[in-house]
Amino acid sequence: MNLNKESAVSKALLNKWGKEKTPFVFLIDFECKKPLCWRIDDNTADFKYDFNGFTNAEKLPNKNKKLQFERYPESFEIYKAKFEKIKQQIEYGNSFLVNLTTETPIVTNLSLGEIFDRVVAKYSCWLQDAFVCFSPETFIKIMNQKIYSYPMKGTVDANLPNAEENILKDAKELAEHATIVDLIRNDLSRVSTNVKVDKFRFYEKIKTQTGLLGQVSSEISGDLQPNYAEHIGDILFDLLPAGSICGAPKAKTKKIIFDTEQGDRGYYTGIAGYFDGENLDSCVLIRYLQENNRYRSGGGITFQSDATKEYQEMIEKVYVPIF
């Protein structure tokens, strides 16, 4: 990946902090144009986070303020035009899988900061005047000299009868998930050895304010060198963008995404996380609400995809985990 000056500086700084075992947090946008990183002891009042319990925030939610949340998705006709553009690129052989995302205007009575204080999620973060994110998806973890990735690909309304059985048997979902697992295996092979799939397609339920969503993930792991911390910036940037929210092959697919979505994603579908001096945990920035009250969501498109189903999945992902 060709990095701009800001990303090259950030990568070198993370390598330096990794070598020194200095704990830090980081936030990297999808295009790698405006990465941010802080030492843990820096004042990060404008960036609050709770990454699997590793946090700089004391949440003080006002639970007397009942959540109001209404969504106004774009029409199916507008979505389908973009969907067909993606399908055409797939038919041309320019991509096997493209992650198509959209913006959905929402109306809520809570500020971004108030939403951060109240969400229940594996990973959550808030950047002042920019966004709030409450992600269920791990990007990578590093523990005991091993690297792990958990690509999430496949979503279903978990309240439907036989939801788990149906999504795990769905041929389109299987092919899409297998493509991403293969992509992540190749990605991890660039930074580690002995890469293998530990768990293939396991099902989890995620609670939302309107019910349950089912998500399908896999676990992939590899072995790192003893001095991996000295190269932690290299590792992070080498693996970007996350395969699950881009597609394959990455370079061509990123161009298709830019042309179809007509602009940069910014921090949406980027990554964020922390290094505690020994281990690292990070997430993909999905389930994301911008400061202009536009919610970003989407899904993977393959040659087998159905526009109606993909449109419905995009809408189902517009939620906040506040109960």
Structure description:
By secondary structure, this protein is an alpha+beta fold. It has one domain: Anthranilate synthase, CATH 3.60.120.10. Helices cover 29% and strands 34% of the residues. It contains eight helices and 18 strands. It has helices at residues 5-20, 76-91, 112-118, 163-169, 171-189, 232-238, 250-261, 307-316; strands at residues 24-28, 36-39, 47-51, 54-55, 69-71, 97-108, 123-127, 131-135, 138-143, 146-149, 152-157, 193-208, 211-223, 247-248, 271-275, 280-284, 288-290, 294-301. The strands form two sheets. Strands 1, 2, 9, 10, 11, 12, 13, 15 and 16 form a nine-stranded antiparallel sheet that branches. β1 and β2 (36-39) form a beta hairpin. α1 (5-20) crosses α6. It is globular. The mean pLDDT is 94.
Described by the principal axes of the CA atoms, the overall outline is globular
Q: Let me know the CATH homologous superfamily.
A: Anthranilate synthase
The first-level CATH class is given as: Alpha Beta
Helix content: 25-40%
Rounded radius of gyration (Å)? 19 Å
Main sheet properties = 9 strands, antiparallel
Reported CATH architecture: 4-Layer Sandwich
Class of secondary structure makeup: alpha+beta
Number of strands: 18
Low-pLDDT regions: none
- Provide a count of the helices: 8
